[in-house]
Amino acid sequence: MPELTSKGTTISKKGFKKAVAKTQNEEGKKRKKSRRDNYSIYIYKVLKQVHPDTGISSKAMSIMNSFVSDNFERIANEASRLAHYDKRSTITSREIQTAVRLLLPGELAKYAVSEGTKAVTKYTSSK
Question: Quick one: pLDDT at residue 21?
């Protein structure tokens, strides 16, 4: 038989942990779980494309995930700054391309720009 808690949620004796996860805050809205970016599956897919017989440890995956997240943040912040300089409220592929050219060194920037251009072209042609 379900019981009523002080916050107004019902719990059963078997499913206590599940019921606790669904509790509501003071305004009656459900709490939103904080979401962290995780690029692990994409890193793994790229690794298998480049080296099909090579694996990766969870520690190395965590480091790669941090590396990708950090670079994403840097590029996004730089693109945001560039859009702000031009008094624009939208970040376009042009700002992203300029941010990549500013942040990544030499050949890496060149390859990143060409891959990005290829991805944008493929996306716009599929629309």
Answer: 53
Domain range for 109: 56-126
Q: How many CB atoms lie within 10 A of CB 16?
A: 10
Tell me whether residue 122 is in a domain: yes
DSSP string, 11-66: E-SSSHHHHHHT-B-TTSPBPPPP-----HHHHHHHHHHH-TT----HHHHHHHHH
Total domains in the fold of the chain: 1
pLDDT tens track for 7-32: 555 555 555 544 555 556 667 777 77
Residue 66 lies in a domain: yes
Q: Model's pTM, two decimal places?
A: 0.70
